[in-house]
Amino acid sequence: MTTIAYRDGVIAADSLITQNGTRIGTVAKIVRVPGGGLAGVAGELGGMARFLDWARSGAEGELTFSTCEIDGFLVTAEGQVLVTTDSGGMVKIKQPFHAVGSGRDFARGALAAGATAVEAVKIAMKFDTQTGGRVRSLVLSTQEFEKLTSST
């Protein structure tokens, strides 16, 4: 599957793709979205692609696929995290950090202990066999990131 983590204006993800337990390549799992936000998704490759296309198009309209295929989230330019629900919608969460994917528990533990998003994904890579490849990260726009970090 994968591990994606978010904290303090930074989203990070591994890049590994697996199929039936075999490592088959790498792919980007995080993107910038219109308005300065960020999005990340873990799960079945087709569902991931549809979620990222939906996010890049401005997250307009309903999610048009089963969310059981994916575990995704959006981060608004203001740092608000919205996660996918089983019903195909999005719900806001109040946590200052979030992680999804097969390595989410390792990443969440690392984030709770103060790790950055990148550090959390690297820690998950040490323990989760479906998390690997290169760690990629994106930062909220500089202006919005400065607002976010100066208010905490």
How would you characterize the overall build of this protein?
With 152 residues, the protein is an alpha+beta fold. It has a single domain, classed as Aminohydrolase, N-terminal nucleophile (Ntn) domain (Glutamine Phosphoribosylpyrophosphate, subunit 1, domain 1, 4-Layer Sandwich), CATH 3.60.20. Helix content is 27%, strand content 34%. It is built from four helices and eleven strands. The protein has helices at residues 45-56, 104-112, 117-127, 142-150, and strands at 3-7, 10-13, 16-19, 22-26, 30-33, 37-43, 70-75, 81-84, 90-93, 97-101, 136-139. It has a five-stranded antiparallel sheet, covered by helices on one side. A hairpin with a 2-residue loop joins strand 3 (16-19) and strand 4 (22-26). It is globular, with a radius of gyration of 14 Å. It starts with a strand and ends with a helix.
CATH superfamily name? Answer: Aminohydrolase, N-terminal nucleophile (Ntn) domain
Question: Given the C-alpha coordinates, what overall shape results?
Answer: globular
Helix content: 25-40%
CATH architecture assignment: 4-Layer Sandwich
- Rg over alpha carbons: 14 Å
Alpha carbon gap, first and last residue: 32 Å
CATH T-level topology: Glutamine Phosphoribosylpyrophosphate, subunit 1, domain 1
Give the tally of β-strands. Answer: 11
Low-confidence stretches: none
Number of structural domains: 1
Number of helical segments?
A: 4
